[in-house]
Design goal:
The chain is an all-alpha fold and about 50 residues long. The chain has helices at about 1-10, 15-45.
C-alpha cells in the first residue's frame, strides 16, 4: 500500500523528489520515536529510570 501511495504522489507532483524525501523522513522519525518509546518502557519496567 505504501508503494502505491508514493507512486500516486509522484504522479501528482510530477516526480518532485523533495516531497517523497520529506515523507521518508517523516516515516523514519515515527519509527525512531516508536523505538525510543519502547526502550523507555523497557527501562521503566526494569526500574532503571
Amino acid at each position: 500500500m505504501t508503494r502505491d501511495c508514493t507512486h500516486s504522489d509522484e504522479a501528482r507532483t510530477d516526480g518532485t523528489r523533495p516531497v517523497t524525501r520529506a515523507k521518508r523522513w517523516l516515516t523514519v522519525a515515527k519509527l525512531l520515536v516508536s523505538v525510543i518509546a519502547m526502550l523507555v518502557g523497557l527501562l521503566k519496567t526494569l526500574g532503571l529510570i
